[in-house]
Amino acid sequence: MRIGMNEGAIVVWENNHIRRYPNLRNIGLVIRDRECINQQEYEELKSPPPLELPIKSSKIICLAKNYPAHAKEMGVEPENLPPHPDLFLKPQSALIGPGENIIFPPQAQQVDHEVELAVVISKKGKNISVEDSFDFIFGYTILLDMTARDIQALAKKKGRPWFPSKGFDTFSPIGPVIVTSDEIKYPQNLDLELSINGQIKQKGNTKDMIFSIERIISYCSSITTLEEGDLIATGTPAGVGPVQKGDKISATIESIGTLEVGVI
Ligand code: MG
């Protein structure tokens, strides 16, 4: 099943049937009791519509250094990796959809791309066990964890929070769709790739994550209550680097699709 947004409604298409739901919060109920839209709407929506609006989530939790090769390129040796996932938050206001533009902030000298598999949470959960964590996954999408690297480097040096470097408006493009968990049974072996203007910059596979998705969900829920629609970005593989105004970014994750955004 694949999910997109159309005119503010969640659109689900599966086996040539398209259904619309007013918002993500209803999905848990409607998945068991689906209702088709009419034929005319179906014809209009035959091809997967773009995720035009961000989903509603109360928070976007991100992991730092969850792929050994990326940790190394950031100067972190294996013996200095944290014993549990290193977390930070991005605000809702950073979300944009496919075809939109990342705005290069005037305060930044260098803005880097980071392609990441994002988990969409299905229901409220606190202190979720590793064994139960897959029950809390609604689906998967692509998230770009855009980062003002010079601002982050200064923050690291001075021991200040990362938030300003990660939290700018437009710094969390997502999409092009949410693929529900029934379509991706084993998310721990998906190829990820990011290219700029057709040139490949990042290439990786989710099997290389240091902390598995189950452990990430369990750990996050030990700190904060997870809510339906929350996003967890699971870290980026190696190859992060700067983007420039005018660039076209294309990010692909196997079994999900390709997210395309610009930089202005
Ligand atoms: Mg990241």
Structural class: alpha+beta
- Which CATH C-level class of the largest domain is it? Alpha Beta
Low-confidence residue ranges: 20-39, 45-54
- CATH superfamily heading of the largest domain: Fumarylacetoacetase-like, C-terminal domain
- Report the end-to-end length measured between terminal Cα atoms: 33 Å
Q: Any idea what the shape is?
A: globular
Could you explain how this protein is built, in words?
The protein is α+β, with helices and mostly antiparallel strands and 264 residues long. It folds into two domains: 2-44, no CATH class; 60-263, Fumarylacetoacetate hydrolase, domain 2, CATH 3.90.850.10. The chain is built from six helices and 18 strands. The strands form three sheets. Strands 1, 2, 3, 4, 5, 6, 9, 10, 12 and 15 form a ten-stranded mixed sheet that branches. Strand 1 and strand 2 (9-14) form a beta hairpin. The longest helix is centred in the last third of the chain and has 11 residues, at 213-223. Bound molecules: magnesium ion. Magnesium ion is lined by residues 62, 114, 116, 145, 235-236.
